[in-house]
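Data availability (excerpt). The following record was deposited with the supplementary files.
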Amino acid sequence: MTNTNSGHCIVVLIAHIADLHIGAIQYGLLEREQDFYDAWEEVISKILEEHAKLVIISGDTVDKPRLGGRPLRALYRGFKKLKDHNVEIIAILGEHDFKRVRGEEPILYLFADQGLLKIIGVGDRLILKRNINGLNILIAGLSKHRKSETKQLLHSLRRLEILTNQEDSNRKILMLHQGLKELNPHAGEITLDQLPRNFNYYAFGHYHTANSDLRINGAPVTYPGSLEVVRIDELNTVTFIAGFKCLTAEKGFYIVDFTTKEPLLHRIKIDIRPQLRIELPLITLKLRTMLVNIAKELRKLGSRKKPILHITFKDSKSSIKDLDTLLSMMIGPHVLTYRWSIEEETSREIEPHIKEEVFSLEDELLNLARAELKSDELAKLVLEILEITKSNIVEHAKIERLIKLINTKLLGEVE
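Predicted structure:
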């Protein structure tokens, strides 16, 4: 999408983002912390490419109320870059943005004091009015209310409806960080019927999966979703790898075109680290082949970053020892990290006369080493080194002797 002014047509573009969770460190990996900063930087670049004049952030800008130096710098650089390009930011607070402790102030107030963004939805500051390319736009918002505060939330929504009805604006936007029961009956606090009816666009945050299907009198009710994968249940887009169905996630935000009274939505995707969730049968005889094929497909993903793989093994009539070591060797080199679990079948029946197959990791490693080195003797030496390094007391002298022996034999074979 590009921003073009043709004739006398007024083009007004607003970027709607939410759930940045800057400062999150998933799985304790610094690479994952950096992924959230990279997503934020890419969003800023794309907002500028689209020539949006205003950015609205519908809550959870940060992952936790107290931040260290790296996330603070990442936020500052992003906010400053937008301000330098005359792009204004208006934000509401999500539950991650503030700590409910007397005397504590949200970290975003620091950036507001520097003139880098405006915060609404706190205290009596519920409404801002802006003129963008000659169009009068009203932005109203409320910060996050807990489920136990639903009564207070509904009262505030009714108050907003009365206040905004008195305003003569071309377009009206409502910002909320709440869950709608229509999308999640258990996590939601309110329903569509409980929202004011006098807005042109409902800019929600809180749910991490993008959704723009809902409408109120034709006005879009949208969740842009999180900018990065925060939880595994966000992996809900079906794809296939090595013939197996798996789940992944697409992330991004919305550019909203307010040129017409009924806003037009443009989904802008961003390039994040791939995460894949896959279920595999725990079949002894096929496990190695399955993992080899999956490893090949992982190499072909074409992402600039190594993926993260979540594997759920469906338990069968097999018993596999040292599964993590096998995954480490066959999958580990191709991913940033992998996580696995075994899900036992509820109706598992094993006939008494059927002997359980036992997977031998030693045999598998021997086969792999033999295939790579083209020598049974060298393969056994490699296996011996692996056994030593697995023990609590590492015998360095013995390892050095074995490595010298392997080098001698390899050089001998070359000569």
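Summary of structural features: The first strand starts at residue 13 and ends at 17.
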